[in-house]
Amino acid sequence: MCAPLVFELGAGRSARGVMHYISTRGGVAPVGFAEALMMGLGTDGGLLVPERLPQVDADCLRAWSDLSFQALALEIMTPFVGGDIPRSHLARLIDRSYASFSHPAVTPLREAAGRTYLELFHGPTAAFKDVALQLLGNLFEYFLERDGGQLNIVGATSGDTGSAAIYGVRGKPRINIFILHPKGRVSPVQERQMTTVLDANVHNIAVRGTFDDCQHLVKTLFRDLDFKARHSLGAVNSINWLRILAQTVYYFYAWGQISGGDTARQVSFAVPTGNFGDVFAGWLARRMGLPIDRLVIATNRNDILARFVADGRYAKGEVFHTLSPAMDIQVASNFERYLYYLLDQDPGAVCAKLADLEATGQLDVDPAQLRQVQADFAAAAVSDAQTLAQIRSTYETSGYILCPHTAVGAVASRDAPETVVLATAHPAKFNEAVREAIGREAPPPPALEGLMDKPVRCTELGASDAELRAHIDAALAAI
Fold first, then answer.
1. Of the residues 129, 183, 228, 429, which is catalytic?
2. Would the pTM count as exceeding 0.90?
């Protein structure tokens, strides 16, 4: 066994103790794990982060490399959870959350066409979001049963978050869920995965607009503290800290499988990302001590993150519809968490930068900060034509079918073929792109069979705060 984890306190200091959470904007008094989980977005509009980060030493890395995914998740999460859940209860919640995955390794590695893919799509909705959201649903249920109360989840999705969140809480007592998706801008399979769930506690909303419109509506609701308190709102988007924490586990797991516990071995990852949550989880794992070499931010035509890494300017642009729709995002929620660390954990500096973004549509970092960004990440933007060519090439070489998001990751890291590519979704979720690339569809996993023939339920709304509030008011009044 490795020693108890030491916590990084910021200015080179360290200590052991209970974890608390604070806001990137400085307006939230330190809270425990349970309160942070249920709060979702900070009451000051910021994102919650640990007050200090556990540091993993070489002994822990070596010991953890032999663990199952579930046992590893328990070790990584325990210091972040603190005393809010007894360790034995946390172990049971983790085991229950991953019992629904179809592969015993939960997130296995797969070799194809000279590349290594970390398959994250073996959960009930065939996308990487299941890794966090199956656990988040069970944690919500645990705290509500323990402490009482009701939770009304409101979330926005560019495709996969919505279905994974819905499957994580469908039918659970004390929980209702409202998921917003941009009408016509998710794949047909993604839409059906959400709208065919007819449990009474599930409310799907198609918004006439973009994902950024959906995300803005959700954040506006959470900033209205009276509305949030009156309706006991909770978050499942990657603004919820648990989403980030759960996703760090598969970086540690993949490293252990590849390195065999050799702490001199560094591993690089290419991460298809739109909302910055998945790649931030990798950055967090490296900050904790995981030997990661390169983290490659892989984006599509919506290239705000790639542009930022190139020139230090984070500037909003038009949202383009692409073959990798889950990344059709300009304003990445989790960028604020990275900005907080980039600015030396200074909430005042974060607020000033965000004020610039709000006023002018862009924010800039100084040359020293840009050098740090470029030390932390590589980045590339990938076109639809390149995406299709990668799906075609990989299939012709190996018979392995990539989803378009995974293909973006493969293209973005093709100069370093030893890089592990995160395979974020099953290709059958994006068969229009797959068919265009290789002339056939990917065979569906059991979770997707017969999906397109099921009845649906969904409400269509404009991108209007007033319409959304009225809809939530009416739906909850009718319960």
1. 129
2. yes
